[in-house]
Design a protein that fits this description.
The protein is an alpha/beta fold. It has nine helices and twelve strands. It has a seven-stranded parallel β-sheet.
Length: 309
Amino acid sequence: MKLLFLSGADRAEAWRAQFAKLAPELEFVQWPDVPDPAAIDFALVWKYPPGELARYPNLKLVSSLGAGIDHIVGDPHFPAHVPFVRLVDPSLTDGMVEYAIYGALRHHRQMRQYESFQRAGEWRPLPAPDTKSTRVGVAGVGEIGGAVARALAGLGFAVAGWSRSGDGPEGLEMFAGAAGWKPFLARTDILVCVLPLTDATRGILNAEAFAAMPQGSALINIARGGHVVAADLVAALDSGPVAYALLDVTDPEPLPAIHPFWRHPKIEITPHIASLTNPATAAPQVVENVRAFLNGKPLRNLVDRGQGY
């Protein structure tokens, strides 16, 4: 059996070493050096050239190298009969939670203002914020979003969630669907976006959404850049109500040097590093799904094509 590693952004050798240890029966093939496409049984992919997977006639299962699968869903030539799974690794989730906590506390504890005071040489205490009355909203409360919501609630924030269906972690106040979107935003001082990118969520963070948020609110986007309408975010930061945006994802990636996000005083950007997949902790899940497929057992984190996540 052969597994194709199809990514230009990940460390192939680290993955090769893990598969050699965990599943020596799987021959590791690194793209683009694929002598015999018909011999490929499984693929582990990240942001591959659209249409590439159609070259492998005997492909049985595709695994994303991360939790995001928009690079697969957006491929019009993806083989319709091949199932694909997302990778939801505990260490990946932990990194996302840490990043969301950092962004929420950075805004909540007014650290950007204190940095400006330091640059000006000013000793200037601000009124202490009240954590229990600060409302955090988590948009998208799947495995990662649910972990983010629980962690922020554990710090004392008033946390609520939004999803299309209204399903969320037990005990979390939830808002559902289009009817619940603006009420959810209206009660949200710090918005954490962990939504999957689908046709329904592309551009969801737009002028209408920002106008529904309270004055002085913050946006933390650890999902996909395509959720944000860039011009609308800049306008909301310039004239209110949004006071701060922490963006780990952008559209496109990387941003062109002339993009206004780079130099906006109220935007902080990181290069899609909120959490990075660790081969040592993630490879076992890939192997588990390969063996489950071969034995006719349910696949872990199987993507629903109809819903796009």
